[in-house]
Amino acid sequence: MTSVKDDLPDHALALLGYVMDGMRRDVHARSAAGAGAATGLRSSQLRLLSLTPVDGMRVTDLAERVGMTKQALGEFANALEDRGLMESVRDDQDRRIRILRPTEQGRRAVADGEALIAEVEADWRRRLGAQRWERLRALLLAAAELGPGQPAE
């Protein structure tokens, strides 16, 4: 009899994908069950809200920050605006420029979303074991700090 472990690919990209998918499913399940202002939000929507400064940011700059095209970011922003979590205003200096910023409800959604993610991480920490979880986080942090195309030291 084969186990699930036998079916997993052994390259890091696929393994990271499985972990991300699992964590996203857990976040989504908890969000759907009720997470305050973050109820029903996808992890990608929470990420966009959390990376949007309170004072706002130009669409172009925000798209670059989150690694999306301007068009894709616009669709996400419109969906968040429809829910009252983000607002769009025009730049005082150049009325052609659109500035996105979280609303008060959007800032609450970020706080509620961070609490939700902390719950999911605590559950994964318990399931994986504290020592292994801390090693995983340390390795992920080290890898994230490398950034794209950065040589390892």
Description:
- By secondary structure, the chain is mainly α.
- It has a single domain, classed as Winged helix-like DNA-binding domain superfamily/Winged helix DNA-binding domain (Arc Repressor Mutant, subunit A, Orthogonal Bundle), CATH 1.10.10.10.
- Helices cover 63% and strands 8% of the residues.
- It contains 7 helices and 3 strands.
- It has helices at 4-7, 12-33, 43-50, 59-66, 70-82, 104-128, 130-146; strands spanning 57-58, 86-90, 98-102.
- It has a 3-stranded antiparallel β-sheet with strand order 1-3-2.
- Helix 4 (59-66) crosses helix 5 and helix 6 (104-128) packs across helix 7 (130-146).
- The radius of gyration is 18 Å and the shape is globular.
- The model has no long low-confidence stretch (mean pLDDT 86).
